[in-house]
Amino acid sequence: MLLFTNTFKNGLKRFIKLDNINEIVSTTLSVLITTLPITIFTFGSTSLVSLISNVLILPLIPIITVFGLYSILISSLGINLLNKLIFRILDFLLKFTVNIINFLGKQSFASTESTTLGICLLSIIILIYMYFKYKELKPT
Predict the structure, then answer these.
(1) Do both 119 and 99 map to the same domain?
(2) Beta strands per DSSP E along 17-124
C-alpha cells in the first residue's frame, strides 16, 4: 500500500489542491489496489462509494479518537459536567459518521455484485497509477 500512495499523491497534486483531501484519496486508491482483488474474490462485490465515504469520514476519525480518549481520562477524574459535554460531541460525530455510511450504503449504485465491474474498476485504478508513475519517472 505504501508503495502506491506517494505516486498517487504526486500525480493528484495537479487535480486536488488540498493536501488533506489528496492524502485521503491517495491512500484510498492505494488501499483499493491492494484489497480489491481479495474483496472481489471473497465477497463477490465491490463498493463503488468507498472513495466518497472515505473523503467524508476519514477526517473525523482522529477527532473522534481524541474525544474518546479525553472522555476516558476525564471520566476517570470524575469531572461529570465536562465529560457530558465530550460525550455529546462524540455522540454527534459518531451518529454523523453512521448516517453518512447508511446514506451512501443505501444508494442503488453503492456496490456491485458483478466481479467483472470490480475487475474493471481495479484495472482503471491500476492504469491511473501507471500513468502517474510514468509521469513521475519520465525525464522532463
Answers:
(1) no
(2) 46-47, 111-112
Tens digits of residue pLDDT in 9-57: 988 898 888 998 999 999 988 888 888 888 888 888 888 898 899 999 9
* Residue 131 near residue 11 (C-beta atoms within 8 A): yes
Give the range of the structural domain holding residue 128, as residue numbers without chain letter.
Answer: 1-48+110-140
pTM: 0.72
- Report angle CA 86, 88, 92 to the nearest 5 degrees: 120
121-56-26-10 Cα dihedral, nearest 10 degrees: 130
Q: What one-letter code names the amino acid at 35?
A: T
CA distance 46 to 110: 9
Residue 44 lies in a domain: yes
Domain count, the chain: 2
